[in-house]
Amino acid sequence: MGAFGVIAHPENRKLEPVERTEVLDQLARMLAHPLFRHSKRYPALLRYVVEHTVDGATEHMKERTLGIEVFGRSANYDTNQDPVVRATAGEIRKRIAQYYYLPENQGQLRIELPLGTYVPEFHLPVLNVSAPSPTGIVVVSPATAPVPASTVVAEAPTRPSRTAWMLPSAITAAVMAVLVLGVAAWRPWNAPSALDRFWSPLIEAPGDVLMCVGQPHFGPSNRAPVTGDSHDAMYFTPTATPASTTLRELYGLGRHHVALTDAVTLARVAGVLESHGKKFNVRGLTATSFEDLRGGPVVLVGAFNNEWTLRLTSTMRFRFQSSEGHSWITDSQKPGAPRWEVDSTKPYLTITDDYAMIARVRDPTTGRFVVVAAGLSGWGTQAAGELLAENRLMETLARDAPPDWASKNIQAIINTKVVAGNSGPPMVVAKYFW
Questions:
Q1: What are residue 75's phi and psi, to 5 degrees?
Q2: How many CA atoms lie within 13 A of 284 on its CB side?
Q3: How far apart are CA 230 and CA 320, in angstroms?
Q4: What is the rounded CA–CA span in Å between residue 111 and residue 292?
Q5: Nearest to residue 1, comparing CAs of 113, 127, 182, 121?
Q6: Which of 39, 198, 264, 361 to pair with 22, CA 20 to 30 A apart?
Q7: Where do the domains of the chain lie?
Q8: How confident is the model at residue 3 (pLDDT cuts 50, 70, 90)?
Q9: What is the chain's percent helix, strand, coil content, to nearest 5?
């Protein structure tokens, strides 16, 4: 890889037609690559800044302007509270580095997004760089360009001395060793992980993520039984709490209670969202309305304590059911197959297996992406949260999946071994993509 010369500098200079075509062709190649193709946010920002720069319109490259023009934020949005532009630009820089690390891309025109600015630079491999043209564009000469005959001077061939070539070779070897070690430590060429690919539809969706966690119910005074697919009168829908309810009574109704296993799952999912710069809100079942679910992407935690999970999954291939203390997951496409079941009437220390459902779907009712982490009991929910937060476990879900699984609906059933009341690692036992 040779030296690189800038062909779009200084700012506010419109590129010549040939140069503009070369840059836009390169942009199209990059955006067609899997590093960018499976995202909506990253191509949108990169395309905007490149197209405006080649037209000399770099005055638009301000964080607030980009937030408004590219991501549809309001004119007075708080860039500190909503760092969508900064977070997206940081990920673009990483993916650009990954793209150009690949051998087949190293000789291409380079589109860079330097740190500290949203104005991209465009580079070509060159040996010679001339003075700026009257338009302000630096003219580059590719390394393969022929040298004019008038500049060629005939010389008698000479053999370089052993010392003359050993020193440059030694220096080159040392520099390359340092570069290889540095790049190996950084590993910019890594493709998006299985965990990134699973969460990308929610991360890239507009709006904050709503995490709705199931809640237990301790009294009948303000809850009405659900009919239909819940299969059991023990499940209730939230209704308004009377204004006369005391604080003590409110706690007894379960509005401030969350199972510890569900809380652990919430914390794990929150960590994933935080690492991607995605904002989220947490609400209990009793405080979550259908209108809330339509406001953005959703994470549902819990099964039989979360009515929204039961409603969403009631028409899917894998479904929750329960009766007389038994709870299970069925495969609607294999009615005669054994079901994944837990008998909650047994002493809890004798239970050796729990099961959970993981799902990532676009809810046909709300049109929003939804992730489900729901066990037959708390052990299963906690194991589901573990898989949703660790890449090495997510890879077991991605194994043998369709190539485009990151954009498909997913359902999976996991098993966790229970020892003395503690759950073990999750194991995927069934999965379905559509």
A1: -65, -25
A2: 16
A3: 8
A4: 41
A5: 127
A6: 39
A7: 3-144, 194-433
A8: very low
A9: 40, 20, 40
